């Protein structure tokens, strides 16, 4: 069981599963949405992600025609993103996770649009665009 929430504590969630993949996304949208050189995200099953507090604080921003970014209306913490063509998947923002976990399946994506001032030479696989 994975638990987490936003910065102000208004939103709390529980995920009935494990973190099985971590992608470090370096695209310009993720950099701007997170205010950092990349976003650490994991696909999770929509039907196993439960909001136990603060669901009314969730706000959506359509950052592209087929993608929503969902965040806390009070503190702005990014919680997840959702693509219209993948309704069964949410891409959970791992910075909001409170439960300790490990995951060996990690990689960098969209590195060709990464921040010029950040070197992600950590030995993980790197992909210029999406993972093939």
In short:
This protein is mostly beta strands. It has one helix at 28-34, and strands spanning 2-5, 12-15, 22-25, 39-45, 49-53, 58-64, 67-72, 78-83, 89-93, 106-109. The chain has one domain: Metal Binding Protein, Guanine Nucleotide Exchange Factor, Chain A (Beta Complex), CATH 2.170.150.70.
Describe, in plain words, how this protein is organized in 3D.
The protein has 132 residues and is mainly β. It has a single domain, classed as Metal Binding Protein, Guanine Nucleotide Exchange Factor, Chain A (Beta Complex), CATH 2.170.150.70. It has 1 helix and 10 strands. The protein has one helix at 28-34, and strands spanning 2-5, 12-15, 22-25, 39-45, 49-53, 58-64, 67-72, 78-83, 89-93, 106-109. Strands 6-7-8-9-4-3-10 form a 7-stranded mixed sheet. A 3-stranded antiparallel sheet has the order 1-2-5, with no helix packed on it. Strand 6 (58-64) and strand 7 form a beta hairpin. The longest helix has 7 residues, at 28-34. The chain is globular. The chain starts with a strand and ends in a 23-residue tail after the last strand. The model has no long low-confidence stretch (mean pLDDT 94).
